[in-house]
Amino acid sequence: MGDAAGIGPEIIVKALSLREIYDVCRPVVIGSLKAMELGREVARSNIRLRPVHSVSESQFRFGEIDILDLNNIDVDRLVMGKPQAMAGKASYEYVEKAVNLSLRGEIHAIVTAPINKTALNMAGYAFSGHTEILAHLTGTRSYAMLLFSDNLKVIHVSTHVSLKEACNLVKKDRILETIRLGYEALREMDIEDPKIAVSGLNPHAGEGGLFGTEEIEEIAPAVEEAKALGMKVYGPLPPDTVFVRASKGEFDLVVAMYHDQGHIAFKMLNFMSGVNVTVGLPIIRTSVDHGTAYRRAGLRLGTADPSSLIEAIKLAAKIAKNRMARREGKTD
């Protein structure tokens, strides 16, 4: 459900009011019934909210929303649009519950609504976001953030670190692993033989070493090794043009060297419709590609856009079905 003080409950109500969602999956919300009632009120909806004690009790009927109620939000103390420890603690507990259910095979995928890093840390959880929480809870060491849309897909060598540290993380082994993670992820998204562009770190991809040597010493060797493994990989390419080329269909995926290099380009094209995917986990997780929108949530106008959540649900369903089909094929 995400942070109860943000737009999560509102956009969940809006997304799960669409028949098209129930055509592709069987959704159940892990969250707070009382917070979802507030979200329903803000969304000006009369959809029925149905509390359940386990996933097996869910009926997955269009026209009502099954909610696995953790009962961890006191709405009388909840201040909409403000970070607070109660909401941060609850948002962590939703993710933790979802991961446990997924690892036990009771659910096929997780779709997360936005959380707030300040609220999370106020509650005593020293994580910089969902990606790091999920890696911790699943014991995953090799993972990456991939941003997905129809017109652009971007995976990141590093994410929630300082720019100085991000430059230090541009190393051959990490770049090669990110390429591999992206390649495998796209195959689960029905792109069987993806063309992967690898961005440079420096202006003009280093201009032959004039503006930096990372392209020569780290990025190019990773690209060559990926090619030797049979992947279609190109680069290092100038960062100021590679995203345009990918958005026009020349490449299926861009490997960005750090968070903002990939995010700025992606959000210029897909600010409210992009999907965030954590790749490398033993479970499937997609998410909205925006934050809690505290300012909007605090106004309680009911104008939050559910587009990113809708796309995240659809993508999670697609990946889950493809993964199950591959497993059945291997079994056969």
Tell me about this structure.
It is a single chain. The chain has 332 residues and is α/β, with parallel strands linked by helices. It folds into 2 domains: 1-140 and 281-332, Isopropylmalate Dehydrogenase (3-Layer(aba) Sandwich); 142-275, Isopropylmalate Dehydrogenase, CATH 3.40.718. The protein contains 13 helices and 11 strands. The chain has an 8-stranded mixed sheet, sandwiched between helices. A 3-stranded parallel sheet has the order 1-3-2. The radius of gyration is 20 Å and the shape is globular.
Low-confidence stretches: none
Strand-pairing-aware structural class: alpha/beta
CATH class category label of the largest domain: Alpha Beta
CATH homologous superfamily designation of the largest domain: Isopropylmalate Dehydrogenase
Number of domains: 2
Radius of gyration: 20 Å
CATH topology of the largest domain: Isopropylmalate Dehydrogenase
Helicity range: 40-55%
Beta-sheet strand percentage? 15-25%
Number of DSSP E strands: 11
The CATH architecture term of the largest domain is 3-Layer(aba) Sandwich
The rough form would be described as globular
Order of helices and strands: HHEHEEHEHHEEHHEHEHEHEEHH
Major β-sheet profile: 8 strands, mixed
Q: Alpha-carbon distance between the termini?
A: 37 Å
Alpha plus pi helix count: 13
Spatial strand sequence of the major β-sheet:
4-11-10-5-6-9-7-8
Overall pLDDT = 96
